[in-house]
Every structure is written in structure tokens, then in C-alpha cells.
């Protein structure tokens, strides 16, 4: 199964939402021990956006917070697809 961010039916996202590449950058930088403010500066995003993304989408594994961008993107794509009441 191909990743959802590369699916042909996936619509391009606006600047409001984090892209898969931004999520990958967050995961790489967090694994390297980089702080949230430094990550936000690198991405050109608010530190609160990066902090919220990590807090909402990190899984606790073996006592530490692991952030997985592929899982997060799959959840975001599914939420964007679902029907929303007007």
C-alpha cells in the first residue's frame, strides 16, 4: 500500500496544515535532540504549532515520547477525507 501522502487522489494541502516533509523534519530533529523552538524556526512555523503537533501525535513507547510522521500523516489524511457537517 503506497503512503497516503503520495496517493494520486490526495489533494494538495494549504499552508495551514503541516506537510509530510515537515512532519519528517520534526521527527528527525526530535531524534537528534533539537529543541522545539529551533525546529519551529527551521520550518518557519510557530513553536506552539510544533509543540502541539508532537503532543497530539506522539506515542509513549518504553517510557519516552516517539513521534512517527507516517502514522500522523495517515491520521491527518483520514480526518481530512471524512464528511463534515456544514
From TrEMBL:
GO terms for cellular component: cytosol. Residues 55-86 are annotated as: Disordered. Pfam families: HTH_38. InterPro entries: IS30-like_HTH, Transposase-Integrase. Residues 15-57 form the Transposase IS30-like HTH domain. GO terms for molecular function: transposase activity. One of its GO terms (biological process) is transposition. This is Helix-turn-helix domain-containing protein.
Amino acid at each position: 500500500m503506497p503512503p497516503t501522502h503520495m496517493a494520486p487522489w490526495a489533494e494538495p494541502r494549504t499552508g495551514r496544515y503541516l506537510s509530510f516533509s515537515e512532519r519528517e523534519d520534526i521527527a528527525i530533529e526530535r531524534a537528534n535532540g533539537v529543541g522545539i523552538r529551533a525546529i519551529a524556526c527551521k520550518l518557519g512555523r510557530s513553536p506552539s504549532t510544533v509543540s502541539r503537533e508532537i503532543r497530539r501525535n506522539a506515542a509513549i513507547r518504553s517510557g519516552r515520547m516517539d513521534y512517527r510522521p507516517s502514522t500522523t500523516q495517515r491520521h491527518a489524511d483520514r480526518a481530512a477525507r471524512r464528511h463534515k457537517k456544514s
